[in-house]
Write a structure and sequence with these properties.
By secondary structure, this protein is α+β, with helices and mostly antiparallel strands. The longest helix is centred in the first third of the chain and has 13 residues.
Length: about 250
């Protein structure tokens, strides 16, 4: 049975042109009527599409019309229906970032790749880290800290010298950004179901923002992060370019 497709594109000329060309070639429906969403753009657009479709249980097949495109398949106008039908499914569980601001306001956001805490000014951040309610680090002086999923371990986490995690690893990577004290701390690997809490020390003197992928909350005093097992996101990949294979290859790239 042919799947009903919907096309969504990033806000770029290249992505818009690809969407128009594909819609000219293929029958298509609105997003809410589709069996599969075809996302055209880069990794940022894929993350946006994933967040916008949380709760809709629609698989997403991305094609790269951006830059890196780690979460995307190669772009082609040909044989799209066959590629979608033969694609491998990867299921992801996002993180939930719960932030409390210095004013006491509480917000929640999903993160597919990572949650990042970042200093806002010239002064280093001071963070206290607890895992499952137990204090693990009394004071980390740093530019920031990252909690990354396996899917996000090759993104910002890798740039900060964090570990690459296989896609099926039941782990989260906790990676400091430019740690000053303790100077030789390189982070930790945590169980996927751990609840991680950051308390910002001196939050008014040393303000910190929290970022869920690309959604930023400024001036936070506390951030709690945990995996949401009740939410499952589905990505589709060509068999020869599976996400697990891409993550493995990243460990051998020089």
């Amino acid at each position: 049975m042919t799947k009903k497709l919907a096309f969504v594109a990033a806000d770029t000329a290249e992505a818009a042109s690809a969407k128009a060309a594909l819609e000219h070639r293929h029958d298509h429906v609105a997003v809410n009527e589709a069996d599969v969403i075809i996302a055209l753009g880069g990794d940022g657009h894929m993350l946006h599409t994933l967040r916008s479709l949380i709760g809709h249980n629609k698989p997403i097949y991305g094609m790269n019309r951006g830059t890196v495109g780690f979460l995307m398949n190669d772009f082609s106008l040909d044989e799209l229906a066959e590629r979608v039908a033969d694609a491998e499914i990867v299921s992801l569980h996002p993180l939930i970032m719960e932030c409390t601001s210095v004013k006491g306001e509480v917000t929640e956001n999903f993160a597919i790749n990572e949650v990042s805490l970042l200093r806002e000014t010239r002064q280093a951040a001071k963070l206290q880290i607890s895992v499952d309610g137990r204090e693990r680090m009394k004071e980390l002086v740093c530019d920031g800290c990252i909690v990354a999923t396996p899917a996000g371990s090759t993104a910002y986490n890798l740039s900060a010298h964090g570990p690459i995690l296989p896609i099926d690893a039941m782990l989260l990577a906790l990676t400091p950004i430019s740690a000053f004290r303790p100077r030789r701390w390189h982070g930790a690997l945590l169980p996927h179901d751990a609840v991680i809490q950051f308390d910002v020390l001196e939050p008014k003197k040393r303000p910190v923002s929290a970022v869920a992928d690309n959604v930023e909350i400024r001036d936070v005093s506390r951030v709690k992060i945990h995996e949401d097992r009740s939410t499952c996101l589905q990505l589709l990949f060509d068999k020869e370019q599976s996400l697990s294979e891409r993550i493995l290859l990243e460990q051998f790239v020089h």
